[in-house]
Write a structure and sequence with these properties.
Helix content is 50%, strand content 7%. It is globular. With 219 residues, it is mostly helical. The strands form 2 sheets. It has a 3-stranded antiparallel sheet with strand order 3-4-5. Strands 1-2 form a two-stranded antiparallel ribbon. The protein folds into 2 domains: 98 residues, no CATH class; 94 residues, no CATH class. The chain is built from 12 helices and 5 strands. Helix 3 crosses helix 4 and helix 3 packs across helix 12. The protein binds protoporphyrin IX containing FE. The site of protoporphyrin IX containing FE (HEM) has 24 residues, from helix 2, helix 4 and helix 10.
């Protein structure tokens, strides 16, 4: 009898040094490689998840490109390497985008998921009516703002003076994380648009996107 398990392709390994839940799901789902990914390819792939077209897609693409360009280092050599070769997704930890504990802390430095932090995230949300009629816990744009402010606040006074300097630009980095996740994975429209806590949990724990995002990726 053929060994079916042996014929299945092994699931891609996602490095603990990739701390971004979004990129981790892209790697786990085989949408991008786990190591060096050329910036145009990374940008195009992420751009598809937004569902945007035309000028909005172009603007989103430029923003993604710029974030990826600086992700592995700010020095001229890192910049050149990123531009020529791409972003190194398994070497993002301790890079310029790593906020060292000023984020949600759902993933620790070994990429272990902390369920208590997902429970904490949910406390910032409310119950929302999903487009399918069910009720679920989620975070709106203003809930996310409060969540990020609390994350930033709890990391205060924990580190050295170099950390104090880095913290100056963390609020800017945060704008490219949870609010963008809401933009991409949110349900509902306008002020009622919310990020489902259940889907955030699946993203972090199973490194899996909702089916509607996978459909956009496979277009
Ligand atoms: C639209 C695309 C993206 C979305 C929606 C997104 C979303 C997020 C979210 C929600 C977090 C978690 C922050 C927390 O735990 O508080 C995060 C962290 C992170 N992301 Fe992304 N991300 C995206 C693209 C990227 C790209 C292109 C890079 C770099 C190549 C990147 C690098 C990182 C890093 C290094 C962290 C860790 C930050 C920390 O631990 O403080 N992300 N991202």
């Amino acid at each position: 009898m053929p060994d079916l398990a042996a014929r299945e392709a092994p699931a891609p390994q996602v490095s603990p040094d990739n701390p971004c839940p979004f990129l981790r799901a892209l790697v786990a789902g085989n949408h991008v490689g786990s190591h060096v990914v050329p910036l145009p390819e990374l940008t195009r792939t992420i751009d598809r998840t937004t569902g945007k077209t035309g000028l909005p897609a172009l603007i989103a693409g430029v923003q993604i490109f710029l974030v990826a360009q600086i992700a592995n280092g700010l020095g001229p050599l890192s910049q050149l390497r990123s531009l020529i070769k791409g972003a190194i997704l398994d070497e993002l930890r301790n890079g310029p985008l790593d906020k060292h504990g000023a984020g949600s802390r759902i993933l620790d430095q070994h990429a272990v998921v902390h369920e208590d932090e997902i429970t904490r995230l949910a406390t910032f949300g409310k119950d929302y009516k999903s487009p399918d009629g069910s009720v679920e816990r989620g975070l709106s744009a203003s809930d996310i703002k409060a969540f990020m402010a609390a994350n930033f606040q709890r990391s205060k006074d924990e580190h050295s003076w170099t950390y104090a300097i880095r913290r100056c630009y963390y609020p800017l980095l945060m704008l490219g994380e949870w609010p963008v996740l809401l933009d991409i994975m949110g349900k509902g429209e306008g002020r009622d648009r919310y990020l489902s806590v259940a889907e955030v949990r699946t993203l972090f724990v199973e490194r899996r996107f909702p089916d509607r995002i996978v459909a956009l990726l496979n277009r």
